[in-house]
Amino acid sequence: MTEPDARTTRPDAIDRMVAATNDHDLDALVDCFTADYHLVAPTHPARGFTGRDQVRRNWTEIFA
Q1: Helix (H, G, I), strand (E, B), or coil: what is residue 25?
Q2: What secondary structure, in 3-state letters, does 33-49 show?
Q3: Residue whose C-alpha is closest to residue 31's, from 48, 13, 43, 49
Q4: What is the sign of the dihedral through the CA atoms of 61, 24, 14 and 35?
Q5: Residue-wise burial string across 6-45, b where 16 or more C-beta atoms lie within 10 A, e elsewhere
Q6: In this structure, are strands 49-50 and 38-39 parallel, antiparallel, or unpaired?
Q7: Sequence-distant (≥ 6) Cβ neighbours of residue 31 within 8 angstroms
Q8: Residues 38 and 52 sit within 8 Å (Cβ to Cβ)
Q9: How many whole angstroms separate alpha carbon 59 and alpha carbon 28?
Q10: N or C: which end of the chain has fewer CB within 10 A?
Q11: C-alpha–C-alpha distance, residues 33 and 14, integer Å
Q12: pTM summary value
């Protein structure tokens, strides 16, 4: 059995994130993350973080 496609289980969240990214809409993109969002990067543990502030900083650089 295969894993369900995220687009069929959470279409609103995925669609919002894709639209915000394509539109370079930083506020809309940051709103896709919860305040307690936690990123874990196993191959780069020092890059892990919690919260929307770092999401905003990261995507500000990406959109630039």
Answers
A1: coil
A2: CCCCCEECCCCCHHHCE
A3: 13
A4: positive
A5: eeeeeeeeeebbeebbeeeebeebbebbeeeeeeeeeeee
A6: antiparallel
A7: 16, 20
A8: no
A9: 11
A10: N
A11: 11
A12: 0.75
Two structure tokens written together for 50: 């919690």
The residue to which tokens 């496609």 are assigned: 5
Q: Which tokens in the block code for residue 3?
A: 């894993």
Written as six digits, the tokens of 17 are 């994130």
pLDDT digit string (tens) for 5-50? 655 656 688 899 999 999 999 999 999 999 999 999 999 999 999 9
